Amino acid sequence: MKKGECAVFTMPPELGYGVAGRNGVPPNSVVLFEVELISWITVVDVSKDGGIVKKIMEKGHKMESPGDLDEVLVKYKVAIADGTVIANTPEGGVEFHVNDGHLCPALPKAILTMKGGEKVELIVQPQYGFGKEGKDAGDGTLSVPPDSVLKLDLELVSFKPVVDVTGDAKVFKKILKEGDGTHVADEGAIVTVSYLARLQNGTVFEKKGLDGEQPLQFTTDEEQVIAGLDRGASTMRKGERAILTINPEYGFESIEAKRDLATVPPFSKLIYEVEMLDFIKEKVPWEMNNQEKIEAANRKKEEGNLLFKSGKYQRARKKYDKAADYVVEEGSFGDDEQKLVKSLSGSCWLNGAACSLKLNDFQEAIKLCSKVLDIEFNNVKALYRRAQAYIQTADLVSAELDIKKALEVDPQNREVKSLQKTLKQHEAESNKRDAKFYSNMFARMTTSSAAKKLKVEKAEEEKKDEEAMVMEMEKENVGDTCGSFENSNGC
């Protein structure tokens, strides 16, 4: 039934009052019940073992539930079986991060199942409360006897989502105000932000866009600001306000940094309260005409070249990948543009492969060089770089084939010849290892065979000794018999 529904239930005797009847209902009667469903309380077994049972007294007004990292604001009242209230939050409630825990194990577990604004009643068994030991008075609670069942009236007032921006728990973003729309700034966007930056002790070292200061504008993924602010800003929507907590690895690291309002000591954890005022995203390929795509690809390639020269191979590879993305759909270009586009995409893949070799990502280098060779089968650079990657992955046969093909195209190429020497050294070392391996294996086999032969020879020797002993015993037996005959019969 649905809430407010009225219905008539027709009950046959076997589901009603049966053959006996009762309370004025004759035996074997069909009974009609007129029922209205006024309301119900949803009951959830949170822990799946009956240890935390949740009754939903009032549904939440949000669709989302908090996550482990999120900061929640809750109100609660906790009582034990005899009705004694052992804990009660202040009027404004209490704030904490879910994964930090609070009060007892049941509380964070239940909160993860709730929606913003939801009110529930929890029945908590001792293993999810204060256990067999109970709890002494303190921390705003009265003492709790051992093995106490708890009754909690709990309200999830609100929560602030917290995001692990970098995936390594070094940059956290706590969202104070949700932004507009669904688009985030992303890499390569021109962003305009205001922020207040401070140390953990509260010292403010920089302000932008506040108290008369101009907002800061920068392009994400261009190292124009510290990495933590850069990475955090690229996840924000327009109008979003958030607090970024940045570990030194994504801040100023070991450097003492002199900023506008104070000096940041080395290895400082930083707190940035940031508002995303506006951003302009880079155009994506399908938003561009062919000329714009070619220009964007050339621009990204040049940016990648500068990064490569600076030894920033990871960022350079990303630039080359983006550049290739602009011109990868050759079918959308005219005949007069095809040659240029093929050359440009091949150049980006080759440069990306060079980055991958520097980053020891040899499988990616092989993949990118193979893309080049699909459109230009005798490209010496692609054969050379793929051979380098094959050597590093111990695929010496494939490396030899690529080197051979490259020398057929350019017999005097010094780099390829040098790589051929390197390959021969690897082959010699590989042969030496193989020889040692098989030598040891055959030695073990020879030792085993010798042991078996010795065992067989020993067994044969023992058998011969045994046969000789038997023959000797037979001779002795014959002598004994003759002796007895001689004694008794004159034999």
Average residue pLDDT? 89
Structural class: alpha+beta
Largest sheet: 7 strands, antiparallel
Distance N to C terminus: 120 Å
Task: Summarize the amount of helix as a percent range.
Answer: 25-40%
Strand content: 15-25%
Give the topology string: H per helix, E per strand. Answer: EEEEEEEHEEEEEEEHEEEEHHHHHHH
User: Which regions are unreliable across 5 or more consecutive residues at pLDDT < 50?
Assistant: 476-491
Number of helices: 9
What Rg do the Cα atoms give? 41 Å
- How many DSSP-defined strands? 18
The outline comes out as: extended
What distinguishing features does this structure have?
single chain; 491 residues; alpha+beta; seven-stranded antiparallel beta sheet; 9 helices; 38% helix; extended; disordered C terminus
Describe the structure.
26% of the residues are buried. A hairpin with a 4-residue loop joins strand 12 (190-199) and strand 13 (204-208). The longest helix is centred in the C-terminal third of the chain and has 76 residues, at 414-489. Helix content is 38%, strand content 22%. It has helices spanning 106-111, 227-233, 290-309, 313-327, 335-358, 362-375, 380-392, 396-409, 414-489, and strands at 6-11, 31-36, 42-45, 52-58, 71-80, 85-88, 94-97, 119-124, 150-160, 162-164, 171-177, 190-199, 204-208, 216-219, 241-246, 257-258, 263-264, 270-280.
